[in-house]
Write a structure and sequence with these properties.
Protein name: Branched-chain-amino-acid aminotransferase
Mean pLDDT: 92
Enzyme class: transferase
Largest sheet: 9 strands, mixed
Low-confidence stretches: 311-319
Helix content: 10-25%
CATH topology of the largest domain: D-amino Acid Aminotransferase, Chain A, domain 2
Number of helices: 7
Structural class: alpha+beta
Function: Acts on leucine, isoleucine and valine.
Strand content: 25-35%
Pfam family, one: Aminotran_4
CATH superfamily of the largest domain: D-amino Acid Aminotransferase, subunit A, domain 2
CATH class of the largest domain: Alpha Beta
Catalytic activity: L-valine + 2-oxoglutarate = 3-methyl-2-oxobutanoate + L-glutamate; L-isoleucine + 2-oxoglutarate = (S)-3-methyl-2-oxopentanoate + L-glutamate; L-leucine + 2-oxoglutarate = 4-methyl-2-oxopentanoate + L-glutamate
Distance between the termini: 8 Å
Order of helices and strands: EEHEEHHEEEHEEEEHEHEEEHE
Radius of gyration: 20 Å
Length: 319
């Protein structure tokens, strides 16, 4: 059965149900105050191996549990329960294509912004085709007038829905002013990250990215790229503070994240980055990243969770 936008299946409250039945109380703290934490998990279909791989699932769940802890939510889901729910709902939809999974833990019921319970969860797999022309055109970005939230506000380490209002404000301002996206500075005036994505630059053959103390998300894609660059490309990688002007004179720049994957930047505030074309290091990192997520890069199988291996029958699924 072809699962389109309206007949896909969702895991919610321990059951797999049609999308129309996956409802949330409009008076709940998550609906009224954004009281939720989440992960956006990518899964990639390898047609040769006839397998769907969830990428770095363990790391996503460690971060999700850390977000729940910092948000002072009761942790009622074990790692195995988080994983099994995702596998079950993907199998129920019979997805054999690239997908993105939104796994959200939220405060349900009729409480207020300070409520800790009841805790609930939904898992929503959605088809997500990879952009074939991701490297054809780079982004034109600006430095946002909006400051990146700091660890003393709502910590960027917490992947909470409300945090993305910060990125929303910056992105919408950039688009209104004719740019593709924005780069945010932190409260110390140093470069933090893009809108929903981490940032790397290349200068004199060295890959540079802001440290996790620079008001950035502890990004799984960022850590993936650091490891691939060091091990596969033998690049020097520095985690260091980046000034705004460092962006203007770098040789290459790109954003990265589970959603955006690897996306080059060719212009910032009207300054051409490098030659104005996608850089060679950016291209190699992009190729390595895709090779890893599709299970084609030898030595990185530890990052992959096969979905259909040892397929078992799922009881009680509405089809």
């Amino acid at each position: 059965m072809n699962r389109d936008e309206y007949n896909r299946l969702i895991w919610i409250s321990g059951k797999i149900v049609p999308l129309k039945d996956a409802t949330i109380n409009v008076l709940s703290p998550t609906a009224q105050f954004g009281a939720n934490v989440f992960e956006g998990i990518r899964c990639y279909w390898n047609d040769t191996k006839q397998e769907l791989y969830a990428f770095r699932l363990v790391e996503h769940y460690v971060r999700l549990q850390n977000s729940m802890k910092m948000f002072r939510m009761g942790n009622i889901y074990s790692m195995d329960e988080l994983r099994q729910g995702l596998i079950d709902v993907i199998k129920a939809n019979n997805y054999k294509e690239d997908i993105a999974v939104r796994q959200t833990v939220f405060i349900d019921g009729f409480g207020s912004w300070h409520s800790k319970e009841p805790v609930n969860m939904f898992i929503a797999p959605i088809p997500r085709k990879r952009l074939e022309n991701s490297l054809d055109e780079g982004l034109r970005c600006c430095i946002s007038s909006w400051e990146r939230i700091s660890d003393n506000n709502i910590s960027p380490k917490v992947k909470v829905g409300a945090n993305y209002i910060n990125s929303r404000m910056a992105h919408m301002e950039a688009v209104e002013n004719g740019y593709d996206s924005a780069i945010l500075l932190n409260n110390h005036g140093k470069v933090a990250e893009g809108t929903g994505a981490c940032l790397f630059i290349v200068r004199d053959g060295v890959l540079i990215t802001p440290p996790t103390s620079a008001s950035i998300l502890e990004s799984i894609t960022r850590s993936t790229i650091i490891e691939l660059a060091r091990k596969e490309l033998n690049l020097d990688v520095l985690e260091m503070e980046i000034n705004r002007t460092d962006l203007y004179i770098c040789d290459e720049a790109f954003l990265c994240g589970s959603a955006v994957e690897v996306k080059p930047i060719i212009n910032i505030d009207g300054y051409t980055i490098g030659t104005g074309q996608v850089g060679e290091i950016t291209k190699r990192i992009y190729e390595l990243y895709l090779s890893a997520v599709y299970g084609e890069l030898q030595g990185y199988e530890k990052w992959l969770t096969p979905i259909y291996q040892d397929v078992d029958r799922i009881e009680g699924v509405i089809t």
